[in-house]
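Structure tokens please, single chain.
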Amino acid sequence: MNERDQIRADALEAALLAFHTNVISLPGIVPVENRLTLVKQFVDSIRRVSFVRTIRNRPHQSVVADPSNRAFDPIKAAAFYAAQGEVDEACWLVFLSTHFGKNGTSGWRLLKDVYGALGQGNLWNWASISQSPDGMTQWLTVNYDALTSDGVPRHFGNHRKYESIRPSSSKSTGPVIASYVRWVLSNGGNHVHLFGRALEETNHVSRAAFGRIYDSMKVLRFGRTAKFDYLSMLAKLDLVAIEANSAYLSTSTGPIRGAKLLFGGSVVSNQYSTQELDTYAIHLAGALRVGLQEMEDALCNWQKSPGRYQRFAG
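Here you go.
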């Protein structure tokens, strides 16, 4: 841990102890090893969020948005398009990055080859998919064998490991993408109108707008984690002025176990309702001066190994 991170860790530990003593008891951090591990997970989570903001603020060359180039990266590409004022393409790439995820071994390869249509001369960009929401289903039907039998590893990320590109699967990517496109098109025709309407309806209150968009997002196979990750990434890239209004613990798995351990002392504790735990998490995030994305991410990773620090990629 570098000097800056150590200063941050010391401040987080002090804030946790002050909250435990003066606000709400945190039995999960009483064992010192638990407390230090949680602090390190917060530091990691903060760094991940800060890294995306760094990407947002840096200038990018067009190669990062070219799926035929080795430099292709969907998050950098989203930042590139955002800087060009092409909000639809930026948001579309954020959605694709959330749906496919970055795999620990094959990286963004699956997303890259689907978005780039295997180099067939056209891209599955927003202009293409918005004109043909079911086009991806048709394309995958034709190209499924090419994507799976050429020896090139292409895998979904860890958060999306149960998804499939098999056209006959009930979890197939084609209908997921079609449902996303129709959600956008039916709410103003494009992302700017969709998000602008949510902001207007909530008087531009960033947390309320986050909740409004979250509740409206009826996209196949996009549950709590996917919606939260998608909207949080849009916020980090400044594509829409929203901020998480909740950690959405009630429908989570890892984060709710982390919250139960932190506030109740046990991952199976029934001492508090999920609504109470979510409220407490919001209060704690304010005391620690971290966002709710960092809160839910740190709690999720911490509960996997509360007394022994392990570094997680996401």
